[in-house]
Amino acid sequence: MFDWNYWLEIFSARAPHLEIHRPTGEDWLTDDEYRRIAGSIATFQLGEQSEGRTLLRFAERFAARRGLPALPQVTALFIKEEQHHAAQLKSFMLANGIALKKRSWTDSIFRVLRKLAGFEAAVTVLVTAEMIGFVYYRALARATASPCLGRICREMCADEAIHLRYETQLLMTLRGQRAPPARRCVEFLHRTLLSVSARVVFHDHRRVLRHVGYTPASFRKDCVAIYRMVMSNHARRPRSRGPAEKLAA
Fold first, then answer.
1. Is this structure's pTM higher than 0.85?
2. Average pLDDT in the 214-243 region?
3. What is the dihedral of CA 150, 156, 159, 165, to 10 degrees?
4. What span, in angstroms and rounded, lies between the C-alpha atoms of 121 and 180?
5. Which of the two ends of the chain, N or C, has the fewest CB atoms closer than 10 A to its terminal CB?
6. How far apart are the C-alpha atoms of 18 and 168, rounded to whole Å?
7. Cα 247 to the chain's mean position, in Å?
């Protein structure tokens, strides 16, 4: 049984500890680093800044049908954390003179997919993006010598680890209502979505990813490894995010 109140407690406890890290005067990108990551980080920042209205609307409808009053609150807090990621990346970008993007074809595709069906489909697309994002942010942390960007990426990965546990527990609960053949079909489609998305993301962000040693095959392999890990460990519960648990730069 999915414990909605548990996740409400977790996200509520984490909310006061969200903060923006800004680079110091000696922590600017070099010209080479700027050219390497500027377009890439701008695309991911755009993806993080969604207002979450579609996801929240799906969650509210699902909660009303199932009598789950905590679900919309949990979803709103989750969206707040995603928006914090967007604000954090925006702060770093503006400090380094990186222009914000208003649109990206890959971001547009993910947004359309989230709106095509109901709550389960929206969560599936979201968790796919988070899996790929986890691998990407680990790479971005190594793509420059900036201590601030490294810290931002490590903290975002720590956040994504919590998000992935929440999303996969939620997803497995939703899929558990299906008959076994239908569930296997949905899981196959999810793996296909992940594989195709990983290839597209590598092509779009190849300058960053190749710099840290990734090939299309190795990037996809790491994304699939994250999928297998979180989908098999979905029952694990995280701790709340307190000051002592934050990752050091």
1. yes
2. 77
3. -110
4. 18
5. N
6. 23
7. 18
